[in-house]
Write a structure and sequence with these properties.
Chain lengths: 137, 547
């Protein structure tokens, strides 16, 4: 049913991703799909990495360690954005096209009042993406 | 290569750039919390201390306006008069330093590492750095400054007890129209040319180098790492960042206030909109609202788009004035004024033994303090958008090209206005108050209604671009160098700027006293900038060795 599952990850909050990561791995095993983990950062030094190259390496090793635990073929993709606080959604939507993923599994928070003004990234991606999106809350 | 995913702190040096090894992890002092429905990610002491002291300061100026006014104006004259030699000398050092970086081999170092590619095209990049750095001043002073120097130069020198009391630059040019025009433009270009842009370039280069190549957070304190070592992550660094937030917020708030005054004057001239605090409050609110939209749309979708629109409009206005005015005279003037600038530059920039005290203290020293107090904001914004350029390319584009554009702008706007006086005897612009001079000059040209309207739009949009880029900068500093802090934080700073501007505008003399305050912050920042030059030099040498 699915061939490639894209999982957006925020390495600064990797501890909150557990459910989404397990869910994505289960689905990948069920349908024999591969996984692509996508991270977005600015070019400026941040809490995860000091340079875009370092960020790319961290995404790769994150994917490698996931592949070890889940046994699913996985790759890491690091994307750079000028203003990630605002550009995250369009960057992820582009990544869906570029990776050719046919399912997105992403973690999100439980919607609250501020979601009326600033919708969650999961919500926006689900609304705009052309492929299936599973938002794990 | 070691597995770095577990270690969120120290990166691997890449060979192409020399990352500074430090145990500091960006965001380690940050508080991530939820207030109501809004997520927050703020640097602990910097956000709270700057927020609270800004509120305290506003209350002080409101509660004791006279005392505050007197204190600030004393501070202002003490700083610009007592330290004029320091401002003038330091600014000369910045210009020479930047020019050296163009010709020396270290100029080949690339910001962001040897393989980095530029984030923005030349047009987008240039539009943003120009709009943030100078835009509004050109609207305000483009006509008025050359005219003012022209008038005082024609008046000749006057002295009282051996001290010059006139405001003319250098030795003036009593009665000699052509000499007075050349001197006026040399002085104006001096204030808007190489020196201010060198000040911005030093700050921007220091920040870009230490964050893109050295891996330190994008805050002012990072440039002090070579000097203070890991102590920059403690209170010395907090103080530097808090000062920067202070200068940026008050600089923006005062400018918002003055911008509202000019836009109000223009609207009154054009549509008869009443002049008064109600209109100005509405204008500031409207400017803040547009800035809010822009800041929520982000760097690419908001700030960049607005900057490009504004550059386009400004270019149109420039071309119109050029062709509607005496085109040939302006163009020959441009070359002639540039030559006059170079001819008078050594005398104008001489920091000691000046006879034209009013000019060198009241104009030059004031301007240098003003540019320097704006430099944390503009410099940081320029740094944010300059990744991937080589140092040489960076300095040429931040120093030489903007300087030339300023020369052109002043030659056209000031040139037309002076020609109106000298050739046509049209003195409306000369006699008008500061905020109206531009509109009076446009009045004498065809299509005055349209061009004045464009002028007002330009004033407003230049403020929006200052306000939104300022909010981004303050948000980044108060988030400890993180550029991906939650959007509500930028919204907070943007509204806060507008609120401070409104409160100060409504209080008598509030804006003037704060302007004095902002300028006084120029003195400590001059020392900051001198240290930055040294830090840049050290940092660049390390990069060269790594190549």
């Amino acid at each position: 049913m699915f061939k490639k599952i894209m999982v957006p990850v925020d390495l600064a909050h990797a501890d909150k991703l557990d459910r989404a990561l397990r869910c994505a791995a289960d689905l990948a095993q069920r349908y024999g799909a591969s996984l692509v983990y996508v991270g977005v950062s600015a070019a400026t030094p941040g809490s995860v990495a000091h340079t875009p190259q370092e960020f790319a390496r961290k995404m790769e090793s994150f994917a490698a360690s996931q592949a070890e635990t889940t046994g699913v073929p996985s790759e890491g993709l690091a994307l750079t954005s000028h203003d990630p606080a605002v550009d995250l959604d369009p960057t992820l939507l582009r990544a869906i096209e570029d990776t050719g993923a046919d399912l997105v599994v992403m973690a999100s928070h439980i919607p609250n009042l501020s979601d009326y003004v600033w919708p969650s990234n999961g919500g926006t991606v689900a609304r705009r993406a052309k492929v299936s999106v599973m938002v794990v809350r | 290569m070691a597995d770095t995913s577990a270690n969120q702190g120290i990166p691997e040096p890449e060979g192409t750039s020399q990352i500074i090894e430090t145990d500091y992890e960006i965001g380690q002092d940050n508080i991530e919390t939820q207030i109501g429905p809004f997520g927050l990610d703020i640097h602990n002491p910097v956000f709270l201390v700057s927020g609270i002291s800004i509120i305290a300061f506003v209350f002080y100026t409101l509660a004791l306006p006279e005392q505050a006014g007197a204190a600030f104006s004393w501070m202002f004259s003490a700083v610009t008069k007592g330290f004029d030699w320091f401002f003038l000398g330091s600014a000369n050092i910045f210009v020479l330093f930047c020019l050296l970086l163009i010709v020396l081999p270290v100029g080949s170092v690339r910001l962001g590492g040897a393989e980095a590619t530029p984030d923005y095209s030349y047009v987008g990049w240039f539009a943003m750095l120009f709009a943030a750095g100078m835009g509004i001043g050109l609207m305000f002073y483009g006509v008025s400054e050359p005219m003012s120097h022209f008038g005082s130069s024609m008046g000749g020198t006057a002295a009282d007890g051996g001290v010059r009391t006139d405001w003319a630059p250098l030795g003036a040019a009593a009665g000699d129209e052509q000499a007075a025009i050349r001197l006026a433009f040399a002085a104006t270009i001096f204030h808007w040319g190489l020196h201010p842009w060198a000040i911005y370039a030093v700050v921007a280069l220091a920040l870009a180098l230490f964050s893109y190549n050295k891996g330190l957070p994008l805050t002012i304190r990072s440039a002090f790492h070579p000097l203070l070592g890991d102590r920059v992550w403690g209170w010395p660094g907090h103080v530097i960042d808090i000062l920067a937030v202070f200068a940026t917020l008050f600089g923006l708030a005062t400018s918002l206030g003055f911008g509202a005054t000019q836009a109000n004057a223009g609207l009154n001239e054009l549509f008869g909109v009443p002049i008064g605090s109600t209109t100005e409050v509405i204008l500031i609110s409207a400017i803040t609202a547009v800035a809010l939209i822009s800041v929520v749309r982000g760097l690419d979708g908001g700030v960049k788009v607005l900057s490009e629109i504004n550059m386009g409009l400004a270019a149109l206005l420039l071309l119109f004035v050029l062709f509607a005015g005496p085109t040939l005279a302006i163009l020959t003037g441009f070359v002639d004024y540039l030559a006059a600038y170079l001819q008078y530059l050594p005398a104008l920039s001489n920091p000691v033994g000046r006879e034209d005290v009013n000019f060198s203290q009241g104009w030059t020293s004031f301007y240098w303090a003003w540019w320097i107090s704006w430099s944390p904001f503009v410099g940081m914004f320029i740094a944010r958008v300059s990744r991937g350029r080589t140092v040489r390319e960076f300095v040429i584009c931040v120093l030489l090209i903007p300087s030339l554009v300023c020369v052109l702008w002043m030659s056209v706007f000031g040139g037309v206005a002076i020609q109106q006086v000298v050739q046509d005897g049209y003195t409306a612009a000369q006699e008008a108050p500061l905020e109206l001079k531009l509109f009076k000059m446009l009045d004498a040209l065809p299509l005055a209604g349209i061009t004045s309207f464009i002028g007002i739009i330009l004033v407003i949009v230049f403020f929006v671009t200052s306000s939104d880029s300022g909010s981004l900068v303050i948000d980044t500093i108060t988030a400890g160098g993180k550029v991906d802090a939650p959007v509500p934080q930028r919204v907070f700073w943007c509204i806060f700027e507008g609120a401070v501007a409104i409160v100060l505008l409504l209080s008598a003399g509030g804006l003037q006293s704060l302007q004095s305050m902002v300028i006084s912050t120029g003195l400590p920042f001059t020392v900051v900038l001198l240290i930055m030059c040294w830090a840049i030099w050290k940092g660049l040498l390390a990069e060269r060795r790594a190549l």
